[in-house]
């Protein structure tokens, strides 16, 4: 094992530097905010990255919104944010979390922590059907339909898992995605003090199966794992299809001061999961039920989980486009490790194990390592181009290293600003990456944009990777906080422009004549219509205390004509997109006169699109 | 009055077109999304609009976020969104609405409808101190401190006003801003049916005074106004300082089908307010108290409010930089009307009134009109450059018209995409506009960006106005929904980079030694610290049912090092910026083990920045 022999002093330096903030890192010293690009470079950059008015971006980038709970849709190469898709947090601009459908979706939570978005795949290629994301905070996953760009399902909180950071990465035909837990906790949900951590706390992996027609997610099965932290995952492909790989840190099982205590061991692990073997174990009944979930204990069912040493506290694990290698990114090591999948299988077959940890075999590192590549300080995540090109973000060094699979040498390095977490390349998680673009998702912006107070934006930087040398060609600030993103060729998506007129929906009203208000006791139901530039009805009379339901259909079946519906002082706003019917419910608990109005500018007479809710006081 | 004689058939055509969506409007027919710019134009555009990596934008644009409830901070000329400032809606990314301070600010509401942002002014120039915005939905106003880019105050709901759309526009030394009501409602808050509209419903104007040191807003006085809709306002400047102007539509007093019934009269009004006379009336006690507010009835106190005819259903009213003219934008008329302020005063002094409406004198239009300029279809809003240049957005025509004060002729027209509401020019509301840039805030994007489902983004377009001809040089999509924006020279702002260490704050903890957990009965208070890359404490033990308060101080006094604090499954996330102390409170109502972790990426060991909340179950 090569990486053990010299990295210790460097690690200490990094830790000290990170804690004190005083480490000198090339690229971080630029506080002057003047471009250091030459005029030739600027000219090249604008030719490549500026999308003239009227032209479209070439690629969509789907970025996690982190603790905003949302997904950001960004055009590449312009880096313009085209749309924010609300997923886990309410969004009054679109009424997400206000109307009944989306309120129910959110399940009583008001936020989520989206880490890793994953586009659905067919034969290892992005297919433009669905986008899946995780919620690290509340143990959930969500599915966005890319026909409408709407969140259609939120699954969870899923029992027995805690902080599924190690998600979402789909398998090559979107059979599954795996959700490994960042945090360990008692899997049965019981209360246990931290002195019982090693006995009573568990890591876990949740496999989610996906319906190929609808994208609907279902919990399939779970693995009980050692009480370590699982950081990132990736699915095998090609020869390694059927496997999933997770990075693993805190194999020290520390419970306090993790920044020191979880970095003590020389190595942590990559955890490799044979998910086809897990499927088989489920079929054979080799599981226990826990809180309604099917849980496999790999210590009791061999052949599913294997470990292999990785440089300490790895962050990303990434499978090469050809599926022949999986790459561990050391985080606290200056190198990445490439593992040869074929040798890995051979070692398993030969039982070439160095030890068993908690009943799980540890594959002999020296037998399966293809190479350690010294990419630089703080490697977090690797993405791929064609022809074996690989790009690794270097958090501590504030740079991106380009290196080559098979040759195992660093070919180029580009400074970024500052401290990149993930990076993402055009079609970079597929079996056939496009090359061309790489976006560094930098955690710090510092001086790169106009200052906006103590909290700076994150900073995305676009690198042209079409040539031998990487070239920085664009950058843009972004709200907190992209962790990972995927970039898909624009023509793979074909979103609809209006909702189909659904004559079968009993809540929809398709003509003014059918607009009605029904009363049943103190329940008032409005079947209404929004149409440029009026609401039917434009007066709603109720009594104080009535339970009011409003079903509203937008019968403007015309591109880009969304209507909003806000009620003054009733804290209600929602929208209906062309052809859509949405519902709100509220109690008319405030007597008086309350205007309602179209909140989404729709026509020259938008300002006239208003009505009155009259709430008659109790006598 | 010139505009009465020929616009009727055109209006009918516009209305029909807006309702059916079938009107042919030049510029809307481009569905092909290919740039129609020549390569020379593209080259010029990218030279002007592309901000190379490492360079800063020249201007900040502060844009309303509409029903998102927020403010968008955008760089000009790049049109990159640098920051979203949460104001009226929660934002889990920054913990806004989750921590105690911001939860209290929001006052139980979960959204607002921000229409018009206004930068504070000194001698009619933006001074970079404060930003004020309105909430049309809940009768509020908010103040953002531009040192921190944080919302510091939300005022309201203010009694007696309903839908203050006609705001915020500050007076030249930020003495006040006025909030005129878009909706009429019984001013006393009583329940009245719509058949009593003309007798029992009222419009209103609220004057808000501003503390010059802190930006703190206080309701000053109110005017009772006729039950019409007031759309936009502007403050006088120079010779017209001391006055405010509001556009007025629905002088028909229609209550139903406003898109037809509020457009019947040939003319509506500009409502002109002598706010210095109102101040004097308040001093002299000429007001009545209503729900705690001082209300002046202008029918009883002459000399404060005057009307002057305006082309029907005007949208914007804009005072020229020299203060000599106020411009009414017809909306349903193809022209703007420029009123000569000096003549307006002369007419008032000469009592040159054509009639009195509801006790308010109507100034003789023909005596005060300087010009009607036929700018094109659907003029909504006018902004200014130097040398008398004026720029009017044409919603129906999808264009911007350039014309000249004094000459009253249209000099140029630029097609935009599509349907601009407001436009905003560099320093365009000041006494000395910069020229150079104009941004059209288009309501529709249609085909201009990669499709994102039935709901399209809005579209901002940047026009170079430095030459004789306008030139479109950039465009960017934006989330719903900018209504108005102001553009300020970047060097006028000097935000802080960290919060000052406040040793006097009893809730703050500045060293690890002072970290503590205090228990008083079932109240548990944590005085904690966030510091790269750990929380003190990293274990919190409580009992089920305890009331938990956590005060957390970020003692990383270093630029761009924000820490987040999320608790799994407890639906809690908030942030502490460098030097800041924030507080959350919750009831520990779920027993078990709940990790907490830093949600805002802060260092290479961010992933290790975690702890455990252990909630011991009730026996």
Task: Write the SSE topology.
The structure is a homodimer of 619-residue chains.
Chain A: H1 8-20, H2 39-49, E1 59-64, E2 71-76, E3 81-85, H3 100-106, E4 118-122, E5 125-135, E6 140-145, E7 150-155, E8 176-180, H4 197-200, E9 203-210, E10 217-225, E11 229-235, E12 243-249, H5 258-261, E13 267-274, H6 275-283, E14 288-290, E15 293-296, E16 305-311, E17 317-319, E18 325-329, E19 336-340, H7 341-349, E20 353-357, E21 360-363, H8 365-368, E22 369-373, E23 379-384, E24 389-394, E25 399-404, E26 410-415, E27 420-425, E28 437-442, E29 458-464, E30 471-478, E31 485-489, E32 516-520, E33 523-531, E34 534-536, E35 539-543, E36 547-554, E37 563-567, E38 572-576, E39 581-587, E40 592-597, E41 610-616
Parallel strand pairs in A: 10-15, 16-21, 33-36, 35-41
Antiparallel strand pairs in A: 1-2, 1-31, 2-3, 4-5, 5-6, 6-7, 8-9, 9-10, 11-12, 12-13, 13-16, 14-15, 17-18, 18-19, 19-22, 20-21, 23-24, 24-25, 25-26, 27-28, 28-29, 29-30, 32-33, 33-34, 36-39, 37-38, 37-40, 40-41
Can you tag this structure with a few keywords?
homodimer; 619 residues; mainly beta; five-stranded mixed sheet; globular; disordered N terminus
Based on Cα principal axes, name the global outline of chain A: globular
Oligomer: homodimer
Q: Work out the radius of gyration of chain A.
A: 26 Å
The average pLDDT of chain A is: 94
Q: Biggest sheet of chain A, in brief?
A: 6 strands, mixed
β-strand amount of chain A: 35-45%
Classification by helices and strands of chain A: mainly beta
Strand count of chain A: 41
Q: Greatest chain-chain interface?
A: A-B, 172 and 173 residues
Count, helices of chain A = 8
Low-confidence stretches of chain A: 1-33
Q: Within the largest sheet of chain A, what's the order of strands?
A: 11-12-13-16-21-20
- Head-to-tail CA distance between termini of chain A: 84 Å
Instruction: Specify the helix fraction band of chain A.
Output: under 10%
